[in-house]
Write a structure and sequence with these properties.
Elements lengths: L1 H34 L4 E7 L9 H8 L4 E7 L2 E3 L10 E3 L3 H4 L6 E4 L1 E2 L4 E2 L9 E4 L13 H4 L4 E5 L17 H4 L2 E6 L2 H13 L5 E4 L28 E6 L11 H14 L3 E5 L5 H8 L4 H12 L4 E3 L6 H5 L3 E4 L4 H6 L5 E4 L7 H7 L3 E3 L2 H12 L6 H11 L7 H14 L3
Parallel strand pairs: 1-2, 1-8, 2-5, 8-9, 9-10, 10-11, 12-13, 12-15, 13-14, 15-16, 16-17
Antiparallel strand pairs: 3-4, 6-7
Helix pairs in contact: 2-15
Length: 425
C-alpha cells in the first residue's frame, strides 16, 4: 500500500517536472519564432473523417489566416484483434488519406503501409497539435500524447458532445491523454462544469475555455439542401427516417438488438417511409468481437437492406445534409443526438436506463420516449401523420440550452491560439 502511494507521488512529481521542462523549451522556441516573424505551425492528426466536424471550422479559420502554417497528418487506427492477441498491432485506414487529399494545405500520410514505418512528426516542428480523439491506445508510441507534448502544445476539442452519465466518462477522457493537453475548448456551461470537475479529480493542469462547439458553426447552410443519400426524392408522401443506435451494449442502453428486425419489418410494409440505418463505424466490429452478431448474421442482416427499395445502410462520411433533409430520428443514448436536435426535427428516444447528464437531461425533455416496439411503432405513425406536439418545446430548448457562439467556435479558437502565441494586443 505504502509502496503504491510513494510511486503515485513520484509519478505526479515526475509529470510536473516534465511539463515544466516542456513548457520552457516551447516558450524558448516561441520567442525565437516571434523574433523572426515566423508563422505558427499547427498540425491536425487525423484518422477518422466521421468526426472531422469537431475541428473543421477551426481548420478553416486558421487556414485563412496568414499567421498559421497548417499541416494535416493522416494516420490509420490501431485494431486489436482478439484472435491475434492484444500485443499484435494492426493498423487499418479509416479513409483519412482519401478524405483529406484535396484539402488546401500540406497533407502528410503519417504511415507507410508497405514498410510499416511512421512519419516523424518532429520534422514538422509543430507549435500546436490537435488530435481528433484522445485514445493513445490506438496510436504508436511516437504519436502518443506523452511523446508529442515534449515538443508541442496539445489542444483538444472533444469529438462528440458529452451526453452520457453524471459526469465526464473516463473512457472518453482517458487521463493518460488529458494530462498532456494544454487546453480543452468546451462547448457549453454544462460541459465546462463536467470537464473541470473531472480535471480536478485526476489532478490535471489542463486549462478549459468556453468557446462553443465547432460542429455547430455554419449549420444554416444545410437548411434547404437535399441529400443524395435517400432512396427517393423528397415529397409530401414520404417520411424520411434515420436510425442511429448506440454501437456497444455493455452500458445497457443500446437499442439495436431490441428493434433491428421489427423496424425492417415495419419499413417493408410501409412504403411511405424512406429509412436510413446509420451504424457507428465500430458497430459491426464490436458486435462480432463480443459474439452478439456473427459475420454471417451481419451479412444476412445487411442483405435485407439491399432487398428493400426504401431502406439503406448509410456509410457516408458526411451526414449533416442527411440530417437536415430528414424528417425523424430514432435513436438511443448517443452524442450525435445533440447535433440532430439543432435541426429542430422530432427525435424518438428508445429508453432502456437513465444515463443522462445535466445537458442531455434538458434535451431529453424534447424527446418522444418509447420503451417497447409497440410504443415505437405508435410514435412513428403519429409523427408520420403530421402530429408533433413537442415542436415548440424543442424550439425553446434550442434557444435556451445550447451555446451557439455568434462569432463561430472555430474562429474563436483560432484567435485564442494567436493570443496564446503572440500575447494580447
Amino acid at each position: 500500500m505504502y509502496i503504491n502511494l510513494i510511486q503515485k507521488i513520484i509519478d505526479i512529481i515526475r509529470g510536473e517536472v516534465d511539463r515544466k521542462i516542456n513548457n520552457i523549451k516551447w516558450n524558448i522556441r516561441k520567442f525565437c519564432k516571434k523574433l523572426f516573424n515566423k508563422p505558427i505551425n499547427l498540425v491536425f492528426i487525423c484518422h477518422r473523417p466521421n468526426v472531422w466536424g469537431s475541428l473543421n471550422t477551426v481548420f478553416e479559420a486558421c487556414n485563412d489566416d496568414s499567421n498559421f502554417n497548417i499541416v494535416i497528418v493522416c494516420i490509420p487506427n490501431k485494431k486489436q484483434l482478439p484472435e491475434l492477441g492484444l500485443s499484435h498491432e494492426i493498423y487499418e485506414s479509416e479513409g483519412a488519406e482519401d478524405f483529406f487529399k484535396d484539402y488546401p494545405c500540406k497533407i502528410v500520410n503519417g504511415y507507410n503501409y508497405k514498410n510499416r514505418k511512421w512519419f516523424n512528426l518532429k520534422q514538422l516542428k509543430p507549435d500546436y497539435v490537435f488530435f481528433q480523439q484522445p485514445y493513445n491506445v490506438c496510436k504508436p508510441k511516437e504519436y502518443s500524447s506523452k511523446s508529442v507534448a515534449k515538443y508541442a502544445k496539445i489542444l483538444y476539442v472533444h469529438y462528440a458532445a458529452n451526453f452520457i452519465g453524471g459526469g465526464v466518462l473516463e473512457e472518453t477522457y482517458p487521463p493518460d491523454f488529458i494530462k498532456d493537453v494544454s487546453t480543452i475548448f468546451v462547448e457549453n456551461k454544462f460541459d465546462e462544469k463536467l470537464v473541470n470537475n473531472y480535471l480536478h479529480k485526476i489532478n490535471a493542469n489542463t486549462e478549459t475555455i468556453l468557446t462553443g462547439f465547432p460542429r455547430y458553426d455554419n449549420l444554416e447552410k444545410y437548411k434547404g439542401i437535399d441529400s443524395e443519400n435517400w432512396n427517393y426524392t423528397k415529397n409530401s408522401n414520404i417520411k424520411r427516417v434515420i436510425w442511429t443506435p448506440r454501437w456497444c451494449t455493455n452500458e445497457g442502453n443500446c437499442c439495436f438488438f431490441d428493434y433491428k428486425d421489427d423496424l425492417l419489418d415495419y419499413v417493408e410494409k410501409n412504403r411511405d417511409i424512406d429509412f436510413l440505418f446509420r451504424p457507428h463505424p465500430q458497430a459491426f466490429l464490436e458486435w462480432e468481437a463480443t459474439g452478439e452478431l456473427s459475420a454471417k448474421e451481419a451479412s444476412d442482416y445487411k442483405k435485407r437492406y439491399q432487398n428493400l427499395q426504401n431502406a439503406k445502410i448509410d456509410v457516408r462520411k458526411e451526414y449533416l445534409t442527411t440530417f437536415y433533409s430528414s424528417d425523424i430520428m430514432i435513436t438511443d443514448i448517443s452524442s450525435i443526438v445533440a447535433e440532430y436536435f439543432l435541426t429542430g426535427k422530432p427525435i424518438i428516444y428508445c429508453h432502456k436506463k437513465d444515463c443522462f447528464n445535466d445537458f442531455s437531461r434538458e434535451l431529453s425533455k424534447g424527446f418522444y420516449w418509447v420503451r417497447s416496439w409497440e410504443e415505437l411503432e405508435k410514435t412513428i405513425n403519429m409523427l408520420k401523420s403530421g402530429e408533433d406536439p413537442l415542436y415548440e418545446k424543442r424550439k425553446h430548448i434550442i434557444n435556451n440550452v445550447f451555446y451557439i457562439n455568434p462569432k463561430g467556435a472555430g474562429y474563436t479558437i483560432k484567435e485564442l491560439i494567436k493570443e496564446d502565441f503572440y500575447g494580447k494586443n
